Amino acid sequence: MNQPKKTLTWPDALPRAGNRRLERLESLSPWFEIYKVSEGVFAVLEPGHAEEVISYHILGSERAVLFDTGMGIANLQAEVERLADLPVIIVASHGHYDHIGDNHRYAEVWAFDSDMDSA
Question: Domain extents for the chain?
């Protein structure tokens, strides 16, 4: 008799299939997984939390953008500084706790005025 195929659920399904095809870089903290998405673009994951937060570090020629700063549980700034020696501007997609956790570590934080924040 055929057994039904078991569907993996979090956290057993980690790393996700899409991430397995990317180059994984070493991180300072076991809280983070860092993947090189393309030249100058890095995904910094926090897979240890059910939200599976992902922040994106995008390098420019003079500055970098960090799109969202995650949960704030471990030091995201230390991870980002290892990837490039550029000033970093934070762009917060919205104000939920899992997107702004490390905002306090940065001098320049841009945020959108969003109805989602008041939901």
Answer: 21-113
Q: Residue 1 gets which letter from DSSP?
A: -
Interval 39-80: pLDDT, tens: 999 999 998 888 889 999 999 999 999 999 999 999 999 999
Architecture of domain 21-113: 4-Layer Sandwich (3.60)
